[in-house]
Design goal:
The chain is mainly beta. It has a single domain, classed as Beta Barrel (Porin), CATH 2.40.160. The chain has a 16-stranded antiparallel beta barrel with strand order 2-3-4-5-6-7-8-9-10-11-12-13-14-16-17-18. The chain is globular.
């Protein structure tokens, strides 16, 4: 780990910490309500506009003192907070269908999360992100490689209703309130859903509505809907693609089990059905064990169906030196009935340098069909949160 620190900590600190000069994990936006909007534009329907009459020099600290006499109607609510995160990655991905072959490459991702509450029990959340185009070769690290411009990635409002929790918005998953019984903290995108990606209909990124209810004794239930709300086909129509899902979970002190089911309409208007189960066990004095399995019936325009399966098994040691060590095996994508599994293997080490900085080396390999070389990735990510 000392080698990784020498290679990454110093340049990452110089490249990021100097221009931002931030060291707090949470910032009260009430203190920066006078920040100039010369370079930042936010949707006026979501937020009050920034004042352009005064500027705030964050790097020098001027204006950070709370002065109630200067707060006007265009200020942020005192309940509004922001959190920031940035990731640097360096490494190489060889084989497979990757365009990042042989050479060592680097990329970055940046994200801002804005949160506010109007009643003390609700939460209005907006996520903004950006990333380097060079990050496209690092899909396993999910470095927000969509655009170098800061864009809205998701917006949601979560509130209590008759004892339940409800969330609505756009850009999030309809499974946002699902409880997944998985204790494996993977850095990779492939294993992020712990083997049940389709039954949690994750990653569709459209308009959504979700509801959950916690019985208070370890049992919880949840349901969700997701649809294409930004095209002419409309929500809940035959032409538009829609997804519905449900989740039941039981979480105890040292183990947990969850079950998902989802119906996802594809581009041909055919419903695909997926069912998944997850479980974990955290015995005292031993590593944590997590597993997931999913089966799906995928239809076609001709009325035929194919069975598709996914699985995942992960183990994680909480204390290996100053960090934690994890390893997992599973399908890199759903296996169609009659075909061989295409497997992915990974091992990672997560080392927290301090409360705001973490270094994560990751090594993985993915199997491909005959005639295509297996993909191998070796990379290191340095993450900052402030």
């Amino acid at each position: 780990m000392k080698l990784f620190q020498r290679l990454l900590v110093a340049p990452a600190a110089l490249g990021l910490l100097s221009p931002l000069a931030a060291n707090a994990t949470e910032v009260n936006l009430n203190a920066i309500s006078d920040y100039s909007n010369d370079q930042i534009e936010l949707d006026s329907n979501s937020f009050k506009s920034f004042s352009s009459e005064k500027s705030l020099l964050i790097s020098g600290g001027e204006g950070l003192v709370d002065d109630s006499s200067s707060i006007s109607s265009d200020s942020f609510s005192e309940t509004t907070t922001a959190s920031f995160s940035a990731d640097f990655a360096i490494g190489a991905v060889n084989g497979g269908t990757s365009t990042e072959n042989d050479g060592v490459n680097a990329g970055y991702g940046f994200q801002i999360d804005l949160n506010t509450s109007f009643t003390g029990e609700d939460s209005f959340d907006v996520s903004l992100d950006a990333g380097s185009p060079d990050a496209a070769g690092y899909t396993e690290f999910d470095l927000n490689d969509g655009s170098t411009s800061l864009t809205v990635d998701g917006i949601a409002y979560t509130f209590p209703l008759a004892g339940a929790t409800v969330s609505v918005g756009d850009g999030n998953d309809g499974s946002a309130l699902f409880t997944t019984a998985c204790a494996y903290g993977t850095p990779s995108d492939t294993f992020d859903a712990c083997g049940t990606p389709s039954s949690a209909f994750a990653g569709l990124g459209n308009a959504f509505a979700a509801v959950s209810y916690d019985f208070g004794n370890g049992w919880s239930v949840a349901g969700g809907y997701e649809g294409e709300g930004d095209n002419a086909d409309g929500l809940m129509t035959k032409e538009g693609a829609d997804a519905f899902g449900a989740n039941v979970a039981y979480i105890a002190d040292s183990f947990g089990v969850s079950v998902n089911t989802a119906v996802i309409e594809d581009a041909n208007g055919v419903d695909d059905t997926y069912n998944g189960i997850n479980g974990y066990w955290t015995p005292e004095g031993f590593p944590t064990f997590s597993a997931g399995y999913e089966y799906g019936d995928v239809g076609s325009a001709t009325g035929l169906t194919d069975g598709r399966t996914s699985y995942f098994v992960g183990v994680q040691f909480a204390e290996v030196g100053p960090g934690s060590l994890g390893a997992a095996v599973g399908t890199k994508e759903a296996t169609t009935e009659g075909n061989d599994d295409l497997t992915m293997y990974e091992v990672f080490y997560e080392y927290p340098v301090n409360d705001s900085m973490t270094i994560t080396p990751l090594a993985y390999t993915k199997e491909f069909v005959a005639g295509t070389e297996d993909e191998t990735g070796l990379m290191v990510k340095t993450s900052f949160s402030f």
